[in-house]
Amino acid sequence: MSKSFLVIGSVLSILLCICAQSAHGFSWGEIFASKKNVTVVNDLDPYITLKIHCRSSDDDLGEHFLGYQRGFSWRFKVNLKQTTDFWCDSSWTDVNGKLYQKPFTAYNANRDWMRHCHNNCVWRIRQDGGYYGDGYDKQFPSAKMFTY
């Protein structure tokens, strides 16, 4: 008898969580159903090339050299455990020859869904740091996520 109350209680808790999340404008199904798109854009300077190397635990996306206002994009689906992460190493040399390097988490399923972007996630790499948002600055305005 107590096991059935435990099961019913667990099911009701899950349903309440789903309803509460749906009331906030999304459902867990949305997280997994659509592909995510992440773009890294060089907003440094017309004379500076940005080098990035991005990877996840499953995929190495290789090194990319981005000219000013150029970007590199990739698409993927979040895994069922919501542990999907992509990391990038970024580096660039300023006009005076000083090297700047910074690793950053380009996508984290738990961090990004409600706070930074839904399906379109854009990094703008500037001389003072990395800015992250939905690329449109409407629902998720770009926020400074790291400093060089």
Give a description of the structure.
This protein is of the alpha+beta class and 148 residues long. Helices cover 22% and strands 41% of the residues. The chain has helices at 2-23, 28-33, 109-112, and strands at residues 36-42, 50-55, 60-66, 71-76, 85-93, 99-108, 120-126, 129-133, 143-146. The strands form 2 sheets. A 5-stranded mixed β-sheet has the order 4-1-7-8-9, with no helix packed on it. A 4-stranded antiparallel β-sheet has the order 3-2-5-6.
What structural keywords apply?
9 strands; 41% strand; 148 residues; 22% helix; globular; secreted; Self-incomp_S1; alpha+beta; 4-stranded antiparallel β-sheet; 5-stranded mixed β-sheet; signal
Q: Which radius of gyration do the C-alpha atoms yield?
A: 19 Å
Helix % is 10-25%
Order of helices and strands: HHEEEEEEHEEE
Which oligomeric form is depicted?
Answer: single chain
| Helix and strand composition category | alpha+beta
Percentage of residues in DSSP E strands: 35-45%
Total number of β-strand segments? 9
Low-confidence stretches: 5-27
The largest sheet, given as strand count, sense and whether it forms a barrel, is: 5 strands, mixed
In short:
With 148 residues, the protein is α+β, with helices and mostly antiparallel strands. It has three helices and nine strands, in the order ααββββββαβββ. Strands 4-1-7-8-9 form a five-stranded mixed sheet, with no helix packed on it. A four-stranded antiparallel sheet has the order 3-2-5-6.
Give a topology summary.
Layout: H1 2-23, H2 28-33, E1 36-42, E2 50-55, E3 60-66, E4 71-76, E5 85-93, E6 99-108, H3 109-112, E7 120-126, E8 129-133, E9 143-146
Parallel strand pairs: 1-7
Antiparallel strand pairs: 1-4, 2-3, 2-5, 5-6, 7-8, 8-9
Organism: Papaver nudicaule (Iceland poppy)
InterPro entries: Self-incomp_S1
Signal peptide: 1-25
